[in-house]
Specification:
The structure holds 2 protein chains of 2 kinds.
Chain A: E1 4-7, E2 10-13, E3 19-25, E4 31-37, E5 44-50, E6 56-57, E7 68-72, E8 75-80, E9 89-96, E10 105-107, E11 111-115
Parallel strand pairs in A: 2-11
Antiparallel strand pairs in A: 1-3, 3-8, 4-5, 4-9, 5-6, 7-8, 9-10, 9-11
Chain B: E1 4-7, E2 10-14, E3 19-25, E4 32-38, E5 45-51, E6 56-59, E7 62-67, E8 72-77, E9 86-92, E10 101-102, E11 106-111
Parallel strand pairs in B: 2-11
Antiparallel strand pairs in B: 1-3, 3-8, 4-5, 4-9, 6-7, 7-8, 9-10, 9-11
The chains are: A mainly beta, B mainly beta.
Chain lengths: 116, 112
């Protein structure tokens, strides 16, 4: 499986500021996904990031709030913009580990965000 | 879109007993069903998965069964140990390049 790292591992931010989370993979992958996990909850997909194209956002998530970059096949960033306490969550990136037709996904260690 | 339900939300078993977690899904096009284990403060880890062309898969103490007609799949853990205590998530996907839809999770506690 791919080795995935995220930076930062945790952060405490002030309301109204923005935080950019980085996801680095040790091999080239086509699909990267960004999830949010609120305290005690399941994983909710924010967006799918495909290299060379605009990210695809799920219902309830918009590009202005969660802009995503995917400059190459090993790296992606997620920005949480104009933060409020409701954005306090763990943010995880994941990558597909195979070439199909089935798609095992492997998760990064997560970024724990607290907004004051 | 796909909807995945998971039961029970919490489960306590005595060490050595078996644990069963059940999931149902709504989209008949789903063909891949992974199970993830998440320990406190850790990332979700894939523990087993099943694909739509098989009905059962086993890996040591863990097994998963799939009933495509009824659209449900289950995780079975035998001879439970305290280190099995974690939150378990099921998920469903319609294939490569598509996202997972996760169930709400089951918190399993194995009591010594």
């Amino acid at each position: 499986s791919a080795v995935i790292s995220q930076k930062p591992s945790r952060d405490i931010c002030q309301r109204g500021t923005s935080l950019t989370i980085q996801c680095q993979v040790d091999s080239q992958v086509t699909m990267m996904f960004w999830y949010r996990q609120q305290p005690g909850q399941s994983l909710t997909l924010i967006a799918t990031a495909n290299q060379g194209s605009e990210a695809t956002y799920e219902s309830g998530f918009v590009i202005d709030k969660f802009p995503i970059s995917r400059p190459n096949l090993t790296f992606s960033t997620l920005t949480v913009s104009n933060m409020s306490p409701e954005d306090s969550s763990i943010y995880l990136c994941s990558v597909e580990g195979s070439l199909g037709p089935y798609n095992e996904q492997f998760f990064g260690p997560g970024t724990r965000l607290t907004v004051l | 879109g796909e909807n995945v339900e998971q039961h029970p939300s919490t489960l306590s078993v005595q060490e050595g007993d078996s644990a069963v977690i059940k999931c149902t899904y709504s989209d008949s096009a789903s063909n891949y069903f992974p199970w993830y284990k998440q320990e406190l403060g850790k990332r979700p880890q894939l523990i087993i998965d099943i694909r739509s062309n098989v009905g059962e898969k086993k890996d040591q103490r863990i097994a998963v069964t799939l009933n495509k007609t009824a659209k449900h799949f289950s995780l079975h853990i035998t001879e439970t140990q305290p280190e099995d205590s974690a939150v378990y998530f099921c998920a469903a996907s319609i294939g490569y390049g598509q996202n997972f839809v996760f169930g709400p999770g089951t918190r399993l506690s194995v009591l010594p």
